[in-house]
Structures are given as structure tokens and as C-alpha cells.
Amino acid sequence: MTEAFIPPAKPIIGDEEREAVDRVLRSGMVAQGPEVAAFEAEFAEVIAGGRVSVAVNSGTSGLHLGLLAAGIGPGDEVIVPSFTFAATANSVALSGATPVFADIEPEQFTLSAEAVEAAITPRTAAVMPVHLYGHPAAMHELGAVADKHGIAVFEDAAQAHAAELDGRRVGTFGSFAMFSLYPTKNMTSGEGGMVSCATPEIERMMRLLRNQGMERQYANEVIGFNARMTDIHAAIGRVQLTKIDGWTEARRANAAFLDRELRGVTVPPVAPGAKHVYHQYTIRVADDRDGFAAALREEHNVGSGVYYPIPNHRLASLERYAPGLDLPETERAAAEVVSLPVHPSLGQAELDRIVNAVNAVAGAGA
Q1: What does the alpha-carbon distance between residue 158 and residue 179 come to, in Å, rounded to a whole number?
Q2: Exposed (0-12), middle (13-18) or buried (19+): which is 87, by Cβ within 10 Å?
Q3: How are beta strands 98-102 and 152-153 bridged, if at all?
Q4: Centroid of chain to Cα 37
Q5: How high is the pLDDT of residue 31?
Q6: What are 260-286's pLDDT values in tens digits?
Q7: In sequence order, what are the beta bridge partners of 275?
Q8: Domains of the chain
Q9: Peptide bond preceding 308: is omega within 30 degrees of 0, i.e. cis?
């Protein structure tokens, strides 16, 4: 009998989330209301280090509105990684500013402070690192570069709920930080995003921009969007907040097991002082990564994912911002990375299967 497929990611939605949705539906108040307000307060306490947080309808909306709330617009440049999901650079372009791509460092796949400094021009307004795969970016080094040049720091924390650097939560370093609540993230609201805000001014502008420019009905102050979160989504997120600590420890325990047992591949190193929350467990395969992933699936029924095979600066949608740009570490990572299952739903038998499959495929290719 063929063993069941092990998916690379698995959203966890239980009876408590269903009951929360039913409660909201019975209440008759399903748009932005008391559930959203409660979710914002609870998220700030549990995830965002106490920073005021504003709920929106997606992570991408969170980045876009965060940039606008921070005053980013035409004529500005924002330095971003190319090795990430396109939403990071998309949000900069949507704000009217120019995304400027910088290379990553090879260990944690996050922005290189040295590369960022080399990319700064008189038009640079900010740098927006991504805490990729759940590992914090080098915020101390990036912050030092930003301070030296008088530019702002924003955080794309889409994949890094509860990650820390030297005991400090991600989402508390920049002027704002965005956390995604997409179904495959470490916690979900079904769809949505949350933005932690460093100042009352950014918070207020976020609230205006997400709600057609209004704090009071029909008293539009600025041109805004409909980027509100519903109470249905917030209710799901509130339940998930009660579970994320346990899920995070399960991810970290699964990763520790994989670290100990995998052979023939480069497992993800963790920087000193960093708490990795393993949204993805990403290894490097130097030779024939795609063949490696295919063998895991076809020979062992073990899923994996490649995040991200095409760097942003080579995407048809974004390449006009980076003509002729050479980012060697970004290119190497895009050719070598593959993410293995690490989600909290894995049992020991599945973890053993993943290890056996990776070791067998890596050994066969040696």
C-alpha cells in the first residue's frame, strides 16, 4: 500500500475556528466590527511585542498601506530583497516609489547590510527587509546602515510570527511591520494581514487608508481603499492566536529533528541570537535541485516547495526596475533552495519518512 502523501504545508482549521465563524454569523455583524478590534488588541499583545496593530484584508494590502502611511511615494526609492515573494516589491511599485533590489547574505537568505549600503542613492527613503522563511533579518546591521544614511526601516514579517532577535520580537524594529495571515502562514485568519505601527501617526493613517479615508462615516479625510478585514476573518484569527505558541514550538522541534538527522544537504543555519519560527524549513541542494524535489515526490510521496525559483528582478513584471542587475547570492539561492515539510501536523512517523527520503535521494545523487 502506498504511503500517504506528506504535503509541504497544511493549514490547520479546527472546530474552534468553525464555532467562532458561526458565532459571528449569528451576531449579524460580519464586516469590520468588534471582532476586528479584539483581534488587533490580542495580536499586538501575543505577536507584535505590544505594538499597536491594524488589521487589513491581506498582507499585500498591509505593505502597500504601510508604505503610504509612512509617506512613501513617487520620487522615493525603497531597497528590498529580490529573493522573496513579489508582493514586497509590488507594494513599493504600487505606492508610486521605485523598488531597488539588493543581494542577500547566503546563510539566512535575508538582505545583506553591505549590499543595502551599496544600493543607497540620494533618492533612497527606506529599506524593507523580509524575515524570510521565519528567520529574522539582520536588523542590527541594517538599522545601523539606515541610521548612518538617515533612511527609514520597514519590516516584511509575513512569514515570521513570533520570531525574535536577541529577545526582541520582529515587528518592533521598523516604523511599521506587516504580518500575513494567509492560510499557509504560521497562523491564519483565512485571509488577511496585520500591521504593527511604531507611531500614532502611522496607525491613524493606516486606519484611514483601509477604510476609504474615513474614521467617521462619510467624513472622508484622505483618498483611501476598501482594505478592511471582516469580523469573520478576525474571529478565525483570534482562535489561532490561542494556538500559535504551541504550533511554533512544534515547528521548532520538527526542525531540530531534521537538523540532527538529515545527511548530504545543507540544513538552515540559525544566526546567533535569532529565534527561527520555521515558516519554511529550507535546505540547499547544490546539484539538480529540481530533480531532487521530483524524486522526493515521485519515489517517496514527500512534498516540497521551491520558494522562490525566479528572483524578483528577473520577473517580467519587475525587471524594468533592475536592468542588467547582478545579484549572485540571490541567483544561487533561487537555483538551490527547496523547502521540506515542517508544519505542526507532522507526526514522528512522517518526520522519519521525510528524513529517510531526503537521505536516500541525497545519497543516490552523491
Answers
A1: 4
A2: buried
A3: unpaired
A4: 23
A5: 86
A6: 999 999 999 999 999 999 999 999 999
A7: 164
A8: 15-102+110-241 (3.40.640.10), 244-304+341-364 (3.90.1150.10)
A9: yes
